[in-house]
Amino acid sequence: MNKILIFLSLLSFSVTLMAKNIDISYHPQRGVFSTRPAKNWEESIVTGNGIMGAMVEGNPYKESIVFNHAQLFLPLNEPHLPVSQGKHLKEVRQMLFNDQYGEASQYIVNLATAEGFHDIHWSDPYVPAFRLNIVSDSVGTSDYARTVDFTTGEIEVKWRDTNGTFSRQMFISRPDKVCVIKFTAENDGRINATLSLSQITEQIEWWVDKFHYDEGYGLKKIENKSKNNELTFRGWYKKTWNGSLQGYDGVVKVVKADGKVKAENGNLIVRDAKNVLLLAWVEPSYNMDKSKVNDILARINSLPTDYATLLKPHESVHKDLFERVSLDLNATKEDRAKSSEELLASQGENPALIEKLFDAARYNIICATGINPPNLQGIWGGTVTPPWASDFTTNGNLPVAVSHYLQANTPELMLPLFDKLESLTDDFKTNAKELFDCRGIYIPSHFATHGLNNHFDATWPMTFWTVGAAWYSMFYYDYYLYTQDKDFLRKRALPFMEQSALFYEDFLIEGNNGKLVFCPSYSPENNPLNSPSQACINATMEIMGVNALLRAIIDASKILNVNQNKITKWESMLTMMPEYELNENGEIREWLWKDLKDNHEHRHASQLFGLYDLHDPVIMNSEELKNGCKKAIDRRMEIRRRDNGGIMAFGMVQLAFAASSMGESESAYDMLKWLGKSYWNNNLVSTHDPGGTFNLDISGGYPSLIMKMLVYSEPGVVSLLPATPKAWAKGSIKGVALRGGILLRELNWNGNNVEATLLADTDQSVTISVFGKGQNKITLKAGKSTKFTNSN
């Protein structure tokens, strides 16, 4: 009998050792550690699997978890055939040639009004599904922390009070496509809580009049029920049409609890539990006549009911994506242990903060990428009036949001962008035909649920912006340059580029000087100093974009040995493109037409387009143009220096991209510091403006900028530390992908001593420079690491 008692005691002790105790002081090394709950939804800590997203405020006694789904764009404005600008292009062009820029813009608005447009048509807004409320009696905490583990996507809220020690953990599984939530109580603690689902009705005041909701906030009907261990939510959208989303279904189910669970009055009441496991699912619906609740429950019931078992396959997928690249700027151990609140107080330049934001930004983008690329809010949102509808804004925001995918060696995350673009090809062809009477494709400035250009007005003449197809073609081509995937180049990249080139073949007209003319044209959201209208001719951005497309499609065709009868035409177009020019101050011009004067008091820097990513050889081979770009960068920084960077963020990222391309390390670093100082909430999710507007643009751009400052590549060329500031005297980065199918396995530097390890997919020779100097030629062997050192 004594032996049995001893055995049982040892077994109990062993089980106790195996259990994971709640350690409130512990926080993940690569993750968010916050010392207080969110004050609003924008400060909620986030997780996601690219399909569903969740936002956790972290209040121990009145928790709010907002659920989102990547496809929940509320039907608002039924798609409208684009204005028949193409039939009136002759008149529009004549107005522009006569310097009647505002009149040309208003002419299109008048035409649109006659064709059924009423005011500006916003994209269908991205809206949340519902809120899970978890309410219990408040007794006051003695210890508290909320954390996110970037390597697993796990959120944890943990606290201690007079009743015991408690935690809530959650993640959203990529393989199983379900949200997993675990409640734990330790010692004498017991979980006593009421769970319910509720509609989200929060509105941002500035945006209320854009969406014109009634009391239903876009929903005409809600079913919110509790039964057995389940909460269900069904929402019917009020304004729908054939082919639009009709609504959505959601389920939150207690799949395991060691206490009592009771359904009552739409709530689930949990009593006297030590452990509770919930599974949650949101499903969009194109037919609300048929409930999907039973289908969702069947999927949930087929899954394991153990947290660790569910976490393991998700962690494998998520961790693989996140850990492909890592940054070390020689931060101290003490600084790395600080909370997000403490780090953000360091004004943007603490190495630990830069490392942390590099990780946080990548985490945000990974979680937001899946069905779609990130929208303006990624995959999250706690309002029914999201700024700019939280759509895909193509003329600046979206390119920045996806900018680090390839550098960070996560090319598979770029594929949802291509999937989205290709799903809208028919609409893009309709745009080209209706707006310009052209073949090929035309990508609008905004899209969400369709790709028709419906978003414009007299102030913002976005039907005049034509570089979209060229710009997004370059993402296709860059995917090939990084991966060297010829099958992708042949089947996806080149066909998209060919459709883009068709548009410009038809759209561009020859001027009196034998050069091609972009008319109409648009440099996003800016107007010349000597013209109040944003409508224009020959915006430099558009010329640079089409130059890049023509070079890329010629190269791609030669690589694949196709289009031999078209290459001559594209080469001829290149020779006829307008030449870049400098203004009277020696700065590169934003408009290459007559005397349109540069306006530097603006948040964008579109005339530097050729330096955002793959360098424009026309600029790089001209000292005069390079100096002109440097001067333009400095002028654009003047308005930001006056307020420590304090205007919208993605334009500053693009300006910093250009500074990095020009080797202007301290200018790039100044902008990186501004970005780190003012554009993050304590959840380490980025904002659009200093201190406000939840937005994921710079979560894409911040790590991209850092990687650009540390390495630039083209096939056969690698530039190490091209724009590294003095403050980064020592550091390392691992896992950066380079063009040409090369992986920079590790780059270490300490003062002037530099060591790089490169791994190539194929045998090749590359020329390496360091700090913008030298021409060191080395040979790489396929599959074999090669070390390069520079100790000068």
UniProtKB/TrEMBL annotation:
GO MF annotation list: alpha-L-fucosidase activity
Domain named Glycosyl hydrolase family 95 N-terminal: residues: 34-288
Record keywords: Hydrolase, Signal
Protein name, entry field: Glycoside hydrolase family 95 protein
SUPFAM superfamilies: Six-hairpin glycosidases
Signal peptide (residue range): 1-19
Residue ranges occupied by any Glycosyl hydrolase family 95 catalytic domain in the UniProt entry: 307-710
GO annotation, biological process: carbohydrate metabolic process
Keyword Signal in annotation: yes
Positions of the Alpha fucosidase A-like C-terminal domain: 713-778
